[in-house]
Amino acid sequence: MTYMYNNSYVTKINHTNEEKKRMKKLSIITLALLLVVTGGLFAGGETENNAKTIVFGDVSWDSVQVHNRIMAFIIENGLTGYKADFTPGDTLPILNGLMQGDIDVDMESWHSNFPEVYRKGIESGSIVDLGQNMPDAPQGWWVPRYLVEGPDAMAPDLKSVADLPKYAHLFTDPEDSSKGQIYGGVAGWSQMKISEQIFNDNNLGDTYNLTIAGSGTAIAATMVSSFKQREPWVGYYWAPTAVLGRLDMVRLKGSEYDPALVNILVNKSMITKAPEVVEILKAYSTTVEENNEFLAKMDNEGWSTQETAIWFLKNKESIWTTWVSSDVAAKVKSALKAL
Questions:
Q1: Is 156 helix (H, G, I), strand (E, B) or coil?
Q2: Three-state SS for 260?
Q3: Predicted pLDDT at 8
Q4: Is the pLDDT of residue 159 over 60?
Q5: Given phi > 0 = left and psi -120 to 50 = alpha, else beta, which region is 44?
Q6: Are residues 147 and 202 in the same domain?
């Protein structure tokens, strides 16, 4: 009996030791999991819910929206503790939102079209200019190259705005056959004042009507339609755009706008709120040719601005890696591979 009791006692003790070993293992595993989760939550000092949101002004044209998404992918995947959001709007409301702090970043300011508002923001200290996104973005009046060059050119001597009167018959206004038609720009855009000045300074009112379109898309549609049929067309447009990236157009002398200022602007709070992001934005730089390329690619492939941003990051590594540290670049590349 004693033997059996002792054996039972010994066996009971052995079971208890095994349970202790299992509990110890479970405690170690639980602690390890907690460390992993905690590390994931607090790497960089932020949880996803507490991540700082960087709001980009999503102006209505494609190039700025692509830039916004390029930058958003970089900060969300290359840095820790940030997420991106986009607020749609036109240039002036976005600029005002930037001054008020509702917008954090404007990737394409075009502020030469609104010098007074820009000056007010800079002088008050509410806006910080981080420098050019791209050099001079050309604006002016354009004609198809086939119209002015080559053996079949219908207007071989059309080189400048001053030459337009003798070719008015080629650009017939469908609503007034006695005059030609020039697409001056978009209703509500400040550039219309410059088109009107060019029109008046060259006394074009006797031979042309200056047409105002409802949107940049509407002007582009008329340009594309004429191009497809190899018909004459003259009017305002700007680069970088998908249309000028795809169509071979020539800017008329005398229609050149002053160099456009396409800078990256941030609200003053960004300096302390997101210094890492600011440093990348200071280095961020592209060319008109690079913009025209990705916009033409977007147009031809029917991509979204997000898909175009991913294409740029995957195919233009030599460009964007100059904006970031090697560590950030490695993280972004890893995220791209995972797509």
A1: coil
A2: coil
A3: 33
A4: yes
A5: left
A6: yes
Select the more confidently predicted residue: 157 or 13: 157
Token digits for 271? 């300096």
**102 touches 263 (CB < 8 A):** no
How many of the other CB atoms lie within 10 Å of CB of 107?
A: 26
What is the C-alpha to C-alpha distance for residues 166 and 207, in angstroms, rounded to an integer?
9
R_g of the chain computed on alpha carbons: 30
User: For 73-82, how does the pLDDT look when each residue is reduced to its tens digit (9 = 90+)?
Assistant: 999 999 999 9
- Encoding tokens for residue 103? 């917008």
Bridge partner residues of 54 (DSSP): 84
- Looking up tokens 């980009």 gives 56
Residue 89 to residues 68, 99, 179, 241, 303: CA-CA distances in angstroms? 13, 14, 36, 18, 21
Closest CA to 41 of 81, 83, 76, 84: 81
Say if residue 143 is in the same domain as residue 235: yes
Tokens of 107: 């990737």
Q: Is the pLDDT of residue 286 over 60?
A: yes
Is residue 278 a part of any domain in this protein?
yes
> Smallest Cα–Cα separation from 137: which of 217, 191, 74, 218?
191
**Contact predicate 209/271, CB 8 Å:** no
3 located within any domain: no
Q: Taken in order 330, 332, 336, 338, is the CA torsion positive or negative?
A: positive
Task: Report the distance separating Cα 84 and Cα 51, nearest Å.
Answer: 10
Q: Specify whether 130 is located in the same domain as 148.
A: no
pLDDT in tens, 297-330: 998 999 999 999 999 999 999 999 999 999 999 9
Helix (H, G, I), strand (E, B) or coil at 133: strand
One domain for residues 217 and 282? no
How many CB atoms sit inside 10 A of residue 262's CB? 25
pLDDT digits (tens, 9 = 90+) for 141-156: 999 999 999 999 999 9
Owning domain of residue 72: 48-136+261-337
Residue 225 belongs to some domain of the structure: yes
All residues at 6 or more sequence positions from 54 whose CB lies less than 8 Å from its CB, including other chains: 72, 75, 82, 83, 84, 85, 104, 105, 270, 274, 277
Residue 48's pLDDT band, with cuts at 50, 70 and 90, is: low
